[in-house]
């Protein structure tokens, strides 16, 4: 596993909330609140690759050129359903020019391979270098779903440096799987855990993220 392209965001606020969301005694509402707080930190970190422009603004004191995110780029947040949805409210608050493109995949419980059921990724990406993609899934387990999602965007010519995977807990096996196919892609996570168990769950992990977030 090459940790060079894995950014582990482990500030104390993230660690506090990670502890809460992992704890099996935390109820669903508690998991959602803690998870959202973590997603905010991860999204701030991910946004560091966005190009800036200068815009002339007038404060109550004077006029000056202020740096801001280039309004002419396409920012796409792509949550992998269903657990990836927990990122979306925070993401559009932080990045109001972003659009949300849902990706529906579930894991076949026997093969652990992703099965598609929904795809809202745009068919065309004119000027692909102007697209910035954040694929969100709280759990990077086998990495198979994430790989499918990356491929959708990479195949449209969007540079790999413009595509980022944002998760909360990653397993070494998932990171290796992604890096085998896309060695230069950046993964932003709050934790890299020990391993996967025989059912494909991350250990120690948090259990089934979708079930815990959505109270199912
Ligand atoms: N998906 C989950 O929700 N949890 C895991 O541990 C692995 C995949």
Note down, in words, how this protein is organized.
- The protein is α/β, with parallel strands linked by helices.
- Helices cover 30% and strands 29% of the residues.
- It has 6 helices and 15 strands.
- The strands form 4 sheets. Strands 1, 4, 5, 6, 7, 8, 10 and 12 form an 8-stranded mixed sheet that branches. It has a 3-stranded parallel sheet with strand order 9-11-13. It has a two-stranded antiparallel ribbon with strand order 2-3.
- Strand 6 (103-107) and strand 7 (114-119) form a beta hairpin.
- It is globular.
- The two termini are 34 Å apart.
- Uracil is lined by residues 83, 139, 141, 200-202, 205, 208-210.
| CA-based shape | globular
Helix content: 25-40%
The H-and-E topology, N to C, reads as EHHEEEHEEEEEHEEHEEEEH
Strand content: 25-35%
The biggest sheet amounts to:
8 strands, mixed
Q: Which structural class matches the secondary elements?
A: alpha/beta
Figure out the total of helices: 6
Summarize the structure.
With 216 residues, the protein is an alpha/beta fold.
Q: Topology of this protein?
A:
Elements: E1 6-8, H1 12-22, H2 28-46, E2 52-58, E3 63-69, E4 74-81, H3 88-94, E5 99-100, E6 103-107, E7 114-119, E8 131-136, E9 139-140, H4 144-154, E10 163-166, E11 169-170, H5 172-181, E12 186-189, E13 191-192, E14 195-196, E15 202-203, H6 209-214
Parallel strand pairs: 1-12, 4-5, 4-6, 4-8, 8-10, 9-11, 10-12, 11-13
Antiparallel strand pairs: 2-3, 6-7, 14-15
Helix pairs in contact: 1-2, 2-3
The structure holds uracil.
Residues 83, 139, 141, 200-202, 205, 208-210 line the site of uracil.
